[in-house]
Write a structure and sequence with these properties.
Blueprint (H helix, E strand, L loop, with lengths): L10 H5 L8 E2 L2 H10 L3 E6 L4 H11 L2 H10 L1 E6 L4 H15 L6 E5 L5 E5 L13 H14 L1 H16 L13 H14 L16 H14 L2 H16 L13 E2 L7 E2 L2 E2 H18 L2 H18 L7 E4 L2 E5 L17 E7 L7 H8 L1 H11 L25 H15 L7 E6 H17 L3 H18 L9 E3 L2 E2 L6 H18 L3 H16 L32 H16 L2 H10 L1 H6 L8 H12 L2 E6 L6 H11 L7 E5 L20 E6 L2 E2 L6 H7 L3
Parallel strand pairs: 1-3, 2-3, 15-16
Antiparallel strand pairs: 2-4, 4-5, 6-7, 8-9, 9-12, 10-11, 12-13, 13-14, 15-17, 17-18
Length: about 700
């Protein structure tokens, strides 16, 4: 019999709807039930593509005996961290403060007043490696609640007081200048891995926001060291197992320092950020590899993550059903998707190859070339003799057509394997990142289909996620908005996507929508000092109002808002938005020199502040005029940090930057300005390129 989660829209929550656990969604009613029964709340937080979340679910939440203990002694609440990042952030902060580490699944025991008193992440079904079993944890908490209630509540209140004392005070300070950015670059240089690219040791995550800072710093200062770190890291990732060599797109992270073996889940946000980074790397260097990876990643997002409603799904699982041995597959000689899975879900099963599997698909000779080209060995680079495809020898194979044929046949064969599950909820923030990436990639490489995909996602956000007061819903599914309110990163990243779309399409409506969202940032997410909060002032009250200016897998809402505010100010001349961006960037001056890896997006915004950013107005007799389009493309390809572009006719009222910008001599004309003070207009693309590169 289904539990209460059967009525939710989150695919992650729906995965638990048939558990014998009497799950509740996060709600006031759940805590009221805990008060009525005088029992603690067991809070379990995870997400759909989380491998260990699935493991704990199979081991414990699907077990009748374990579920009986949970149901008798607790009110159990299940939360999708992607739907409720505020709940996740508040309790993850408590877990990390208490244990020194965090992760998912996150398991927290709360009083009926939502105050945490015992923490953990994954608990196994049996005690092992010094970890108690989950049943032991349940029994220990039950006994403590029954026999040491005063101690438990004292601990909970102390934790809440300690969390309250962590309030940030960095808002409103001076925005970072040359000295802070130089110190940040020096700090990154010290942490850089010159042999393998990237920063730090294993596990190694794609440093998207840091690379964006490095590219902008190079564009502004000419620093070859910054460009080298960005270029080499991008090349190592693109040649490694973290990148899908057959289908494009990136896995979440590499478990090793060499980018060989990934954690196989594929997230929309990683691919959106990396698509944009590789497009920007191509813009700066002309790298053929960067061009290929940007386009393949864009195509992956459209092919595998686009929903029927035009938005983009959140993720593909790391696990998929293991393929049955060849002799056990029904219909092994036919085409179409195979039905011959073993029923056992295995991490990476969809993506890895053995030499025998290569021979089965390609024949002996081509399999030998494929193994050498993609680094497939008899011993394997992953588990059970399988290998993750890489490009260890580079792309210098003489017979390019043969390699292309091999890749196509392997891709087609893989498509008949049991596919990873897809979390098809649409998250506003991550779709904002995808809109920016697809719009720019489509514009750079003359792919109008990618721009159309960006417009389709933007239309969905306006139709479904935006209400009549321009307030955002965090998620939707099947064209229906979820119940959870948007958080700061939603407003900031969607505004960023709309601003990019406005520059690419020349449609000022996207600038207008960005302004509506940023008005909420100013009025509902910002305090008097200029500091920002992750939730709105009128949002559900938690034990602490979350506030984090540091990047995680995505830009922090704080610095993403600073960047969008700055871009909007450059488009409109709004002093209120410019001032808010500068005040919000004060936190980067404090954190950038000390922890540059964790404020990469804030450092990128600081580069734009120092550069202006530049405002480019391109006017032509019509948007289809060839000379005007050439100027527009030149402006979009400029590497000037954070530059904004307005495109239209002189009489257009869609962009403030186009006001009083006539055609010079009756010909298409570009104006380059800083703080609305402009250079001499030009109709020459080469002069425009020079004006935007110095």
């Amino acid at each position: 019999m289904a539990n209460r989660l059967a009525h939710e829209t989150s695919p992650y929550l729906l995965q638990h709807a048939e558990n014998p656990v009497d799950w509740w969604p996060w709600s006031g009613a759940a805590f009221e039930e805990a008060r009525r029964r005088d029992v603690p709340v067991l809070l379990s937080v995870g997400y759909s593509s989380c491998h260990w979340c699935h493991v704990m679910a199979h081991e414990s939440f699907e077990d009748e005996a374990t579920a009986a203990v949970m149901n008798e002694n607790f009110v159990s609440v299940k939360v999708d961290r992607e739907e409720r990042p505020d709940v996740d952030a508040v309790y993850m902060e408590a877990v990390q403060a208490a244990t020194g580490q965090g992760g998912w699944p996150m398991t927290v025991f709360l009083t009926p007043d939502a105050e945490p008193f015992y923490f953990g992440t994954y608990f196994p079904p049996d005690a092992r490696h010094g970890m108690p079993s989950f049943r032991q944890v349940l029994e220990g908490v039950r006994q403590a609640w029954a026999t040491r209630r005063d101690d438990v509540t004292d601990v909970a209140r102390k934790i809440v007081r300690d969390l309250a004392g962590r309030e940030l005070t960095h808002g409103g300070g001076r925005a970072p200048g040359e000295e802070e950015l130089a110190q940040a670059l020096l700090g990154l240089t010290r942490e850089y891995d010159p042999q393998r690219g990237g920063f730090g040791g294993a596990p190694k995550f794609p440093p998207s926001m840091v690379i964006e800072f490095l590219l902008r710093h190079h564009a502004r200062t000419g620093s070859e060291g910054a460009l080298q770190m960005a270029r080499d890291t991008c090349e190592r990732m693109a040649r490694g197992g973290i990148y899908d060599q057959l289908g494009g797109g990136f896995a979440r992270y590499s478990v090793d320092r060499d980018w060989v073996v990934p954690h196989f889940e594929k997230m929309l946000y990683d691919n959106a950020l990396l698509c944009r980074v590789y497009a920007h790397l191509w813009r700066a260097t002309g790298s053929g590899l960067a061009r290929r990876v940007a386009l393949e990643t864009a195509d992956f997002m459209v092919r595998e993550l686009r929903t029927d409603e035009g938005g983009f799904a959140s993720a593909l699982d790391a696990d998929s059903e293991e393929e049955a041995p060849r002799e056990a597959r029904p219909g092994k000689g036919g085409g179409g998707r195979r039905e011959g899975g073993t029923g056992r879900h295995v991490e990476g099963a969809y993506y890895v190859w053995t030499p025998d599997q290569l021979r089965e698909v390609l024949g002996e000779d081509d399999a030998e070339l494929a193994a050498r080209y993609y680094g497939v060995t008899e011993e394997g680079t992953f588990e059970h003799g399988s290998s993750v495809l890489r490009l260890p020898e580079g792309e210098g194979v003489s017979d390019a057509e043969r390699v292309a044929s091999i890749r196509r046949r392997l891709f087609d064969s893989r498509a008949r394997r049991p596919a990873p599950g897809r979390d098809d909820k649409v998250v506003a923030a991550w779709n904002g990142l995808a809109i920016a990436a697809l719009a720019e990639t489509g514009a750079y490489f003359d792919r109008p289909d990618l721009v159309e995909a960006a417009v389709g996602a933007a239309d969905l956000l306006v139709r479904v996620h935006l209400d009549e007061h321009a307030r955002l819903s965090r998620t939707s599914r099947d064209g229906r908005a979820g119940a959870n309110a948007g958080v700061l990163e939603d407003y900031a990243d969607v505004a960023e996507g709309f601003l990019a779309l406005a520059s690419v399409t020349g449609e000022g409506v996207w600038l207008d929508f960005a302004g509506l969202l940023l008005d909420h940032v100013l009025t509902r997410f910002t305090d008097d000092s200029g500091a920002l909060y992750d939730t709105a002032a009128d949002a559900e009250e938690l034990i602490r109002r979350p506030q984090d200016p540091t990047d995680n897998a995505t830009p922090s809402g704080w610095t993403a808002a600073a960047g969008a505010l700055l871009g909007y100010a450059a488009h409109t001349g709004s002093e209120a938005h410019r001032t808010a961006a500068e005040r919000a960037s004060g936190v980067v001056a404090a954190l950038g020199p000390r922890v540059p890896r964790f404020v990469g997006w804030g450092l990128a915004v600081a580069e734009a502040l120092l550069d202006g950013p530049r405002e480019v107005a391109v006017v032509g007799p019509s948007p289809q005029d060839a000379a005007a389009k050439a100027l527009h493309r030149t402006a979009l390809l400029a590497t000037a940090p954070g530059a904004v572009v307005a495109y239209g006719t002189p009489d257009s009222d869609e962009f403030p930057l186009l006001a009083e910008r006539p055609l010079a001599g009756g010909e298409p004309t570009a104006y380059v300005c800083r703080n609305f003070t402009c250079d001499a207009p030009t109709g020459d693309p080469e002069r425009l390129r020079a004006a935007l590169s110095g």
